[in-house]
């Protein structure tokens, strides 16, 4: 349950959205939460390829590049209280999930549900922001996927290890980031048994070095009896945006049903 101060904070932001003129979270143009031009930058799914590919980094698709107007849009949602951006950014995340699932081989039987596993923020970060922003993105993405005919839901299968202090990653190199994040996450037992054939997709807002997703995937794989219905269940990942490495061709989005990015 959200604490009273956090609820008041979120309610105040919603009221401000009604009173103050809306501007695009990406480019600042008046009239839209995220304008059409900025939305189109998040309809170009691509493989996320960190500069130094960490061992164990899961197959990851981003809806767009973490550059240009996309960067301020994500930061506005994450750090500056623009909670209404969960709609378009969550829709972009759904597109990335659809693209990464398209890379899986065709299942022999009826495929199980798609479980979106949010990478958990620290308790301090949630208190500071007044909300769990990755969980919000996952919930929007799940709803978009269901509307497109893909059985999907948010699954809280990861938690933070209590008492594990993590340094600010700013200024750390790749190896230092990995060491800093080692043991950061733990698998949580699902409330009910996961259906056979479930597909696990880690979700986050942005991937840069890949250290966070690598450690989160490691935690899920380390406890297949808790998080996975089968030990060989693949762990995939999808994010809103990835730090660009080089120019690459967007991935075609096909798979179960036609997926349309909605505003």
Structure overview:
The chain is an alpha/beta fold and 263 residues long. The protein has one domain. The chain is built from 9 helices and 8 strands. It has helices spanning 4-19, 36-40, 70-79, 86-101, 123-129, 133-147, 174-181, 211-221, 224-227; strands at residues 46-47, 60-65, 114-118, 152-154, 158-160, 185-187, 199-207, 235-242. The two termini are 29 Å apart. The model is unreliable at 254-263 (pLDDT under 50).
The profile of the biggest β sheet is: 6 strands, mixed
Question: What assembly state would you assign to the polypeptide chains in this entry?
Answer: single chain
Structural class comes to alpha/beta
Low-confidence stretches: 254-263
Q: Strand arrangement, largest sheet?
A: 1-2-8-7-3-4
Helix content: 25-40%
What would the principal axes of the Cα set say about the shape?
globular
Return the string of H and E elements: HHEEHHEHHEEHEEHHE
Radius of gyration: 18 Å
What's the helix count?
A: 9
Q: In what range is the share of β-strand residues? A: 5-15%
What's the number of extended β-strand segments?
A: 8
Number of domains: 1
Write the layout of secondary structure elements.
Elements: H1 4-19, H2 36-40, E1 46-47, E2 60-65, H3 70-79, H4 86-101, E3 114-118, H5 123-129, H6 133-147, E4 152-154, E5 158-160, H7 174-181, E6 185-187, E7 199-207, H8 211-221, H9 224-227, E8 235-242
Q: Main attributes?
A:
single chain, 263 residues, alpha/beta, six-stranded mixed β-sheet, two-stranded antiparallel sheet, 9 helices, globular, disordered C terminus
